[in-house]
Design goal:
The protein is of the alpha/beta class. It has 6 helices and 17 strands. 19% of the residues lie in helices and 36% in strands. β11 and β12 form a beta hairpin. Homotetramer.
Length: 307
């Protein structure tokens, strides 16, 4: 049952060198810098997004993800979900409005996988970059690099997938779109959505909690994904795998790393979801084909390179 969580709002990513990271996310991926704050964080957005930012970069000693946030329909929904989280037994931290520039108050909690998540309802809206909302052109003519269109989802590694799914289903109203199951009935991967997308957040079973696998950004066409591959080679960016197709979600994809070792994905296409759809199930022994449909075998780096 939908609870008023609309979509992914933003992700805060730790980077080792801020200027290198800005060059990667702006010049290569095509995000737009929108602000900086007195903590030294840099705010970025993709061009089709209406909110002020969807990516926050923070310089730190170790790479990885600080938190991922989801936007709610209203402040009233945010209040309700805060109470439901507490009633469910989840420890909740309130983060004051303005701690992130242009963002209202946030409710932070930790999932059983060890990852920090946030809910918020209010954020400054700057509109679609370069085109606006009144008689908009098709696209801005000054976009850079891969011309990423939106921050789409994260894939996270950690334990306790069943408890995490129950939390996202029962309190936040997410649906299970796709899963990978072992012969003894253990779910080792789960793809959850709060919308019609193939997934807004995904988890893979891993003994170490709180690990960040990748942040993903949407492109318009398969040709754009191939062009992203060209740009990765032109800039000597570290590549993981692709261009290829997923079996899970059927998206067309390429994976690569930012200068700090955080993995990025850009992709196009993919399945859609309605609440009356049954989850798609993959057998664990078909995981190679599920993740890399063309090669049908897993890239060891894809499984082990985490931040």
């Amino acid at each position: 049952m939908k609870k008023g969580v609309m979509r992914p709002g933003h992700v805060q990513i730790r980077v080792l060198d801020l200027e290198e990271a800005i060059n990667h996310y702006v010049e290569l991926m095509g995000l737009i810098e929108t602000d900086r704050d007195d903590q030294g964080r840099v705010y970025l957005k993709a061009w089709t997004e209406v909110d002020k930012f969807s990516v926050v970069l923070r310089e730190a000693d170790q790479p990885g993800m600080d938190f991922m946030s989801f936007k709610c329909l209203s402040e009233e929904v945010l209040d309700l979900l805060q109470h439901e989280l507490v009633d469910y037994g989840v420890e909740v931290e309130e983060v004051a409005a303005g701690e992130l520039k242009g963002c209202g108050r946030r409710i932070r909690f930790q999932a059983p996988t060890g990852h920090n998540f946030e809910l918020f309802a209010t954020k400054e809206q700057t509109g679609r970059y370069g085109v606006g909302n009144h008689n908009p052109e098709a696209w801005p003519r000054d976009l850079k690099g891969m011309k990423a269109q939106r921050f789409d989802h994260c894939l996270l590694y950690g334990p306790n997938l069943d408890q995490t799914y129950a939390l996202f289903r029962d309190v936040l109203g997410f649906d299970l779109c796709e899963q990978v199951m072992t012969p003894d009935g253990k779910r080792v991967a789960q793809f959850l959505t709060t919308s019609m997308k193939a997934h807004d957040i995904a988890f893979i079973d891993h003994p170490e909690p709180g690990k960040f696998h990748h942040a993903s950004f949407f492109l318009e066409t398969w040709e754009d994904v191939l062009r992203a591959g060209d740009l990765i080679s032109m800039t000597d960016t570290s590549i993981d795998i692709g261009p290829t197709r997923h079996g899970i979600t059927h998206g067309q994809t390429i994976y690569f790393f930012d200068p700090s070792g955080n993995r990025n994905e850009v992709f196009c296409g993919g399945d859609y979801f309605y609440p009356d759809h049954e989850p798609i199930t993959w057998d664990a022994d078909k995981l190679g084909k599920a993740i890399f449909y063309h090669d049908r075998q897993l890239n060891e780096r894809f499984l082990t390179a985490l931040t």
